[in-house]
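request received
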Amino acid sequence: MATGRTHRPATRSRGIPEATVARLPLYLRALTALSERSVPTVSSEELAAAAGVNSAKLRKDFSYLGSYGTRGVGYDVEYLVYQISRELGLTQDWPVVIVGIGNLGAALANYGGFASRGFRVAALIDADPAMAGKPVAGMPVQHTDDLEKIISDNGVSIGVIATPAGAAQQVCDRLVAAGVTSILNFAPTVLTVPDGVDVRKVDLSIELQILAFHEQRKAGEESAADDGDGAAEPAVTKAQHRKGPDGDVPAVMPA
Amino acid sequence: MATGRTHRPATRSRGIPEATVARLPLYLRALTALSERSVPTVSSEELAAAAGVNSAKLRKDFSYLGSYGTRGVGYDVEYLVYQISRELGLTQDWPVVIVGIGNLGAALANYGGFASRGFRVAALIDADPAMAGKPVAGMPVQHTDDLEKIISDNGVSIGVIATPAGAAQQVCDRLVAAGVTSILNFAPTVLTVPDGVDVRKVDLSIELQILAFHEQRKAGEESAADDGDGAAEPAVTKAQHRKGPDGDVPAVMPA
DNA sequence: GACTGTGAAGACTTTCACAGCA
DNA sequence: TGCTGTGAAAGTCTTCACAGTC
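response:
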């Protein structure tokens, strides 16, 4: 099974597990805060607490990077900040473009967290001619027509898509064709990309839906004190339901 | 993907794995699109493609909900929309408050994806007195002083935090004290909450950092064609590095 | 014949618990 | 003594592959 992988092949991360990679930014944030308070060293226990994970996990994560701690003492804060930054590729400058300057795109353009982590917003792009030239976050919005030129002139390899869902795939295709190989997608749609291009998505409503799921559980559990198969509601219960083409089930949702 | 929850052992989700729950909104979105095109049934293969997962995973996921398909045919779109909505708790109305009406908070307030999924923005709250009364997304911003009253008057159990990092924990504490049991956190900080409260976080810069990590790998791999232990760079390689209190390593990062 | 539902295998992730070093 | 680094165990998630059903 050489190349023909379906979609997300875990991207051969030179031994560092994906789950660990996803936590490195968390550690980095906690470490940066310590660094700003001039704390010289930190134990796995303390750092784990600051990052919101447990210490065994943190130590295991760090063990994939190397042996950067000192037994009996802990980790040198500055040194670890450097190592993690390097591992994440943050010691270099990453120009990014944001496409789709609506409410969300504008908020992203104004978001300080990017610049402070080695990301530089190289351009803001929107399809609306009326937006062109208007300043957002101190930077003139450019028109989609120039997308390809902007990408190549600035050597951009990371693109952020904040367009409506309908436009996202098209924008994505153009970004990829122009040389972008990493995409952060805020549009509520699935993007199809060729092999070698990474996509990460952030969907605001999905997060709320997951919360709602657990919230519903909590409410249900209040009544059923025992931990059984708490089928508190008279609703359809698991496998036993057989659907009919009609039945008592509402056929449509509140769209 | 942004995960949440401070620690807690998987919140007793009545058998449905957390990973499955996290994908239900994805399926729901794909199904809703099919429904709008009046597609009556769909196979696991088709739906999986539309949701960006593979079909085995999708079938396994659905098997946790019940036997809702028909062998040889596929799934009834409307029926599945209903079942998933119910499972996620979207057949009821969830009032939410957004605290922190800066760029991001305002973007969230304007975001259409909430309302269409059973979430109703009940109030916008900000600490800045100058914001109070100003309309955002057709709704007057209210002052933090009234937070507790707003929560209880509206029966809010889900809160969205979009404040600066420094204010987030305090806002969180007040939300929780007022009765909120689910929190979606956009502030780049770890929130501490009591047992029984769920937190999910979305951190924009973390997603970019993960992309940067993979981006850096891609750049590195270009040189090393063979798939060996591609230690292409002359940099520190795994466990063999021994740190000194100085050495050739820069001690400080570009903050 | 087509497609779902699911045990079983495999991969990945977390946690435990302790040896080993400063 | 105090704390890291890590094998091994436990737990979770994904994938396979095929029996079962329409």
